[in-house]
Amino acid sequence: MDFLLNPNVAYLLLVVGILLTLLAIITPGTGMLEVGAAFCLILAGYAVYNLSFSWWALILLVLSVIPFVLAVRRKRREIFLALSIALLIAGSVFLFKDDKGGPAVNPWLASVTSILVGGFLWFVTQKTIQAIQSKPTHNLEKLIGQIGEAKTKIHEDGSVQVAGELWSACSDSPIPLGAQVRVVDRVGFVLKVEKDVPSQ
Fold first, then answer.
1. Tens digit of each residue's pLDDT (9 = 90 or more) over 107-134
2. Domain stop point among 82, 99, 133
3. Cα angle for residues 177, 182, 184 (degrees, 5° grid)
């Protein structure tokens, strides 16, 4: 475990742990990010416990979560996100102290890591928020009136292919497999269809 007491190793574990924690906030539910974050933070915590560190830098790290949460939930998210990244970088770089009281982390390692983590966090957070806030791509109302093909027998239930996609369907009267159908209505995500009779 002695290698964990190297400030550079501890710094990387801490940054990765916090990064995984922030990503888990915007994409909850998988469990993998949470487990990875906990593992890295426990190892980094061991180093923090045994190495000389700055309390003010530790406070900055804790505070970096607050503007990040605000960036996810409020307008002007770029400001909050930039503040969160700045606090994360400053807190992690200056957390561990050398014998003279200065930062113990290698400045080149800190610079490269800060640029990569900051850029990655900015890009992923922006894209994730855009995906969450984007409207559904399917406008089911546009399917009404379109022609499709019955992929199963259709009556109380069945499947049709319309606009290149497979949909659940129902019909007032039985429709055989392979018949051409027309969408006349929808009930939630189920298309109501009828057998299409080509005009003479």
1. 888 888 888 888 888 888 777 777 666 5
2. 133
3. 125
* Both structure tokens of 107: 């400045």
Domain hosting 170: range is 140-195
What is the spatial distance between Cα 58 and Cα 132, in angstroms, rounded to a whole number? 31
| Co-location of 67 and 160 in the same domain | no
CA distances 6 to 9, 28, 58, 94, 108, Å, are 5, 32, 17, 14, 15
pLDDT digits (tens, 9 = 90+) for 39-67: 998 988 888 888 888 889 888 888 888 88
Encode burial over 62-93: b for 16+ CB neighbours within 10 A, e otherwise.
Answer: eebbebbebbbeeeebeebbebbbebbbbbbb
In this prediction the pTM is 0.57
Compute how many other C-beta atoms are within 10 angstroms of the C-beta atom of residue 123. 10
